[in-house]
Amino acid sequence: MKKANVLQWVWINVASVAVTFKYCMVAFYVTSVHRDDARARIDDTCRRWSAALLRLIDLRWSLLGEIPQYTDQRRYIVMCNHASHYDIPLSFMAVPGSMRMLAKKELSHIPIFGQAMRAAEFIFIDRHNRERAKKDLHNAKAKMESGIVLWVSPEGTRSKDGRLLPFKKGCFHLAIDTQAVIIPMVIRDIIKVLPKGETRPNLGVHVDVVFGKPIDTIGYSLDQRQQLSDKVETAMRQLMQPERSAA
């Protein structure tokens, strides 16, 4: 592992923008021309974009635990820690199925990128408007019912030191409302790649993507959101420990 020098940093930034622009254009093309199988094509587009970004920083990773298979026609929510911009592309590489991110609304305002995300069925949530957020979660429910696997960070924002932040309750409301299966997932050492506030990434970092045992929300009521949140948080904290086995 070594920190990118200035020239490498410039190259990574320029190449990342170029790669992202390219795949935004692909997303627009796919959703305009190949409407019958757009979702599957977008799945492939997201993974190609992710692989290209991860190659730029020479990120190395291993999969541990029970990889979800989605064979029972249930709705699924992947709940993952969030400590780096690279959580998202790595999650696309690790998580099977048609995964989409529950993203903060501010991302939708980024020219081209925001429109491409919307075309690709990403769900935006307004974290500052409670009534709007309820409508956004209703939209997320509809996407899940159509087969989308939802990726969320229950922390709601990136951690500065890699430790789990207090969990928000909205995603647990959604999980109970849809009777979803929650897949706890953590990315160990992702904080080493590009911590919040840093500009130059570390190259050649090895991280572990760890899946925990599924947590079924059937039987939980909305009044039990805190109990469900505590259960998921406990599972994720255990997965963060290298000596713990996710199997």
From TrEMBL:
SMART domains the UniProt entry points to: PlsC (SM00563)
GO CC, alphabetical: membrane
Keywords of the record: Acyltransferase, Lipid biosynthesis, Lipid metabolism, Membrane, Phospholipid biosynthesis, Phospholipid metabolism, Transferase, Transmembrane, Transmembrane helix
EC top class, as a word: transferase
Entry-linked InterPro entries: AGP_acyltrans, Plipid/glycerol_acylTrfase
Catalytic activity: a 1-acyl-sn-glycero-3-phosphate + an acyl-CoA = a 1,2-diacyl-sn-glycero-3-phosphate + CoA
Annotated pathway: Lipid metabolism; Phospholipid metabolism; CDP-diacylglycerol biosynthesis; CDP-diacylglycerol from sn-glycerol 3-phosphate: step 2/3
Superkingdom field: Bacteria
TM stretches of this protein: 6-31
Family assignment from sequence similarity: Belongs to the 1-acyl-sn-glycerol-3-phosphate acyltransferase family.
Protein name: 1-acyl-sn-glycerol-3-phosphate acyltransferase
